[in-house]
Every structure is written in structure tokens, then in C-alpha cells.
Amino acid sequence: xxxxxxxxxxxxxxxxxxxxxxxxxxxxxxxxxxxxxxxxxxxxxxxxxxxxxxxxxxxxxxxxxxxxxxxxxxxxxxxxxxxxxxxxxxxxxxxxxxxxxxxxxxxxxxxxxxxxxxxxxxxxxxxxxxxxxxxxxxxxxxxx
Length: 144
What we know:
Elements: H1 20-34, H2 57-68, E1 75-76, H3 77-83, H4 90-98, E2 111-112, H5 125-143
Parallel strand pairs: 1-2
């Protein structure tokens, strides 16, 4: 399986010089790719991007996605619009996904079309499918 062929993750240079937020982000990404069971015990890295600071529907959608759509799950654009408080805003959810400043950590790859097709992804459709497959495989392993 292609998802299992990615064997190791490591931070090679400058780890001792990292700031605390960067260390948190590195630990979170390492856990995401290599040890998903640890993710529940790690804090989500702090976000300082302006898009996530100002009050907007995009911010609401991104925080809702981060909070409510768990590892190994997927949600449609319409379902995410409902969760964010405006069920008629599925197109706006698509716009929020396109402007997501922190892909993978804010898991826009988990938002799919109502038909079940994966839909578009800024990192490319193959990357989106790989991320979804990785999560599904890891979630199945954790269930055993």
C-alpha cells in the first residue's frame, strides 16, 4: 500500500534553535504522519495568521473544521456549512478551503463533495487522496 511505504519522519537541522511554537508545529506534524495516536495528547499549534484573527465566515468555517472534523473523517462542503452555521453557504466553504493558510493542520483535505468524490485541493488531487487514504489507514490501525 502506498500510504504505508512512507516509513520515517525526522527533523534534521536546527531543532535546538526552534522557537516553542515551531517545536509544537513540528511535533504535531510528526505525530500526524508517523504517530497519529499521539495527536490527541498534543496541543494544536498557535495560529497567528491574520485570516484566523478577524471575525468572518471563513474563520468560522476553518475553526469549525479543525474542531469538529476528526482524523480519518470527511465532511461535505454543505455539511461543513451547516456545522459553521449557514447551510446555504457551501460555495463560501469552498472559498474558505482555498484560502486556508495552514493546510494539513487545518484539515481542508477532509472536505469532499456531496457525491463522495474528493474534489479539489491546493496541494493537488493526488495529495488530497493520499492524505485521506493515510488517515483512513491509520484510523483503522488505531481501532484494532
